[in-house]
Amino acid sequence: MTMNNQGRPTAPGTIESNELPTISGDRGLDHEEGLIFELGRKGMTSVDVPDVQMAETRLGGQRRKGAIGLPGLSEPEVVRHYVRLSRMNYAIDAGLYPLGSCTMKHNPRLNEKMARLPGFGDLHPLAPQSTTQGALELISELMKWLTTLTGMPAVAMSPKAGAHGELCGLLAIRAAIEARGEKRPRILVPESAHGTNPATAAFAGFVVDEVPGTKDGHVDVAALKAKLGPDVAAIMLTNPNTCGLFEPQIIEMADAVHAAGAYFYCDGANFNAIAGRVRPGDLGVDAMHINLHKTFSTPHGGGGPGAGPVVLSERLAPYAPLPLLVHDAKGFRYVEDRADVPKDAAPFGRMCAFHGQMGMFTRALTYMLSHGRDGVRQASEDAVLSANYILASLKDVMSAPFGDGPCMHEALFDDSFLDGTGVTTLDFAKAMIDEGYHPMTMYFPLVVHGAMLIEPTESESKESIDRFIHVLRTMALEAKAGKRERFEGAPRLAPRRRLDETAAARKPILRWKPKEMPQAAE
Amino acid sequence: MSETRYTDQHEWVQLDGGNATVGITKFAAEQLGDVVFVEVPDVGRKVNAGGEAAVVESVKAASEVYAPVGGEVTEGNAALADDPAKVNADPEGDGWFFKLKGVDAAEFGKLMTKAQYDEFVKGL
Amino acid sequence: MRYHPLTAEDRAAMLAKIGASSIDALFRDVPKSAVVPLSTFDLPDTKGELEVDRLMSKLAAKNTAAGSVPFFCGAGAYKHHVPSAVDHLIQRSEFLTSYTPYQPEIAQGTLQYMFEFQTQVALLTGMEVANASLYDGSTATAEAVLMAQRVTRRPKAILSGGLHPHYSETVETVAGLSGKVVRAPVTPGSAEDIPAMIDNETACVVVQSPDVFGMIRDLKPIAEAAHAKGALLIAVVTEVMSLGLIEPPGHQGADIVAAEGQSIGNGLNFGGPYVGLFATREKFLRQMPGRLCGETVDATGKRGYVLTLSTREQHIRRDKATSNICTNSGLCCLAFTIHLSLLGEEGLIRVARVNHATASNLADKLTKISGVSLVTSSFFNEFTIKLPKPAAGVVDALAARNIIAGVPVSRLLPHDESVRDLLIVAATETCTDDDIDAFAKGLSEVLS
After folding, report:
1. Chain B contacts of A504, Cβ < 8 Å?
2. Three-class SS of residue A311?
3. Which terminus of chain C is less hemmed in, N or C, by CB atoms within 10 Å?
4. From the list C96, C128, C217, which residue is nearest A299 (CB)?
5. pLDDT tens track for A273-322
6. Predicted complex: ipTM over 0.95
7. DSSP state at residue A271
8. CATH fold of A110-366, please?
């Protein structure tokens, strides 16, 4: 079998609690909260809507029979329920998230205000285009920022997230190759790549071929060149890469890929390191998705929504998906049908309904206008500076496999500094929770053992970073001195102790069930 | 007279005449951690030596299990559907994955003996 | 720069600690030719909040907000009243600015609402299990087709002519890669004979109800016909409010439900972000794409929640993942959950009834106008009417009179002559009697 030994203990064992139990089960400001289904009552509701009784309906005989099973609550109860839930969450507003690859920067509130202007928020995607000119102009402005910052001629706006953008880029590449009448089934992906890269390549119908890395954490250029051939469609690279390093031979790699008739897809997750200073177009990139929720501050929202517009080179621009935004003497409009596109355009199809994540566009453009080109460049410099400061301050007590030179916006450590201590990367990370920090990205990239990838972003003050460094230093020294108390059974101070993920996967319980289960028809 | 041999992919195979039983080794089960799900091949499926035959999942990893020898699947271990923990409890016994018929003894002979496998694991 | 806490002194001290002479030294791996000066970028410099607010407000003012005029657009996105508590709650820091719940001990808030959401979606759709949301209804439909192809190991997907054309195009882009996508004829106001098209190569049949024209479909016979040939029925719902009043797909034999949840909790937002709902049967659980939240206990025995069955996902299976998805719709999913909690069963049913009554009333008023006929005899809150001239021109004329009259079918099918005169009209609880009268009056004038 393939030895993918990411397996680690997921059954947490049992722990005894020595504190005086409260009568209510709550502890001070920490409230336990049940499910809405356990709190609700029949017939109660938080809205005052007239009870319209219709003598006849036109529902085609499909009127719903039987109850749905939803709980009813009053507004005060609903508000209290969700406020209590919120208080069990860590958030950037509350503390640093040193998550490598995620760029957890500050989410400006001006973004939220702008997105909610009725002229943006209360606009239907299929309203007559004469009534949505301001929205189309906004999208056009954002397109200008994205293409200018990246030095690329075109951008596809509809992808709904980074991974969706990757798919868009690969489909454009596929269309370009088909237009040449060629068959190129192989895609090269570094072994250090983020999981979405091979997943997307397989999804798009390609066969994934892994390219090894060198001891310095870069892509092995010789190995890459050896793998190129007339059956290779593209390479998917991340730059700066997932080890937090800029690929010094990136232009040489791009040239080799192009000479072999293939395309260069760039994963733009780490764009925050170079925005305003380096243009991917100058590096030979053919397609790159940009995570608006990373580089351009749109909020992570507990897991979404994101947006992943894809900038495209001259040779891929014709294949951008529908709809296409056109600006002429008559104004702005979306062209939504293949038959109506400008000459030379050959869209591969549509990625999704409507035009894309407008709500994220308003937020991202607000961020860009607020920062300006000088602010964007400053952000990238501060991000890189902070990551290097952390690397320089910790590499003597922790182990940085590529720590001899500077990193980009994220610093990579491995777990060799923990050898012989009995403390794993997981234990180390969980102990950070007790210290008031969200753990860094762990066990990614896979090319390094027990990886810890730290990305502070430009949103942290020096005081905040110094405090973080001090805590990590002390933890590392304690672990190495054999003091394991902090790490065993961590976290202790979070709303929950370690959770039994094994049980959750063996016998999945994915919903609350009422006592009488409405049966799905067979 | 049955004999058990091992692969460098950490599968074991017990051969009895032309019939074989296949599973993963104790070492592999330990590395994986708690097994949460096993996908066994359908009866009647033909597999080649080294071909993907099953999938074993822990919470954080999903690993392919390869057929150590070629043959036709006669049975998948149905007990694993309800109790994947068997793989951790008794990987080289009750936690077997699937059975094959039509196995070539020569192919079997190329695999490692227990002693050879134990040496191999020591060197990892 | 108001978002950057580092001062010049801080930067100098940090460079000193690193041992670098300047920030440029940290970029030493970047080829010299690739580093460009700021002046390269034809973009403005920093602007303060006040100035940005002014610029953005000017752009917003060039649009006609739905709430500011009589408004009747639907066709996959619907204007409903979202109680103020929803927007207030989703803007709490701990919801807005939190990350994906990969560290469950400090993300129980997110995980619990995901669990509540999964339950709500299963109850609404009448299905056994649901995931924690996908991007939107169209991509959820595409994922459903791919899942059906995996489950049945067959290549062909048949799409009903009543499926939203944007959804059909999305399915073709994605599912066309690994199989065959066939579109049934478009028959506004009637159901095409899908059962006759199903054969032994068919993985799934995809039927939307209410369909893009508003008509409510009977899914039971289609489910039976599909199952008889070993195929799956994928039911698509673009107006999820309809599930408050109509028999859900799960009770009609659907195997997978792909829906757009935007109507609940989420505004129109010019097309996004929305929230895709995805529900299926327990037996297909491991083939389901997207995030899943499961119940478990912690080390002290307290109930808690975790992301589970992650081995289907990209960060573990990589090139063998069920999908490449890395995100769900987080905040939109929360908005849906909160809004539905506020509505409760009673509120949802009442709102649904008001929707149907309002649309019914509007249909009656419009069909009294000479030359206007109703195409869809059954509907929830959206119906299609046939006009005596091309609908697109009529809509533009009404827009000039500040009435947003609906979506001409030609906007979705621009090169189909047979639908040129058809207009899709939606009416929700946000339409007043004055709006309806204004629409009827305006239409009458434009058509005379």
Report:
1. 59
2. strand
3. C
4. C96
5. 999 999 999 999 999 999 999 999 999 999 999 999 999 999 999 999 99
6. yes
7. G
8. Aspartate Aminotransferase; domain 2 (3.40.640)
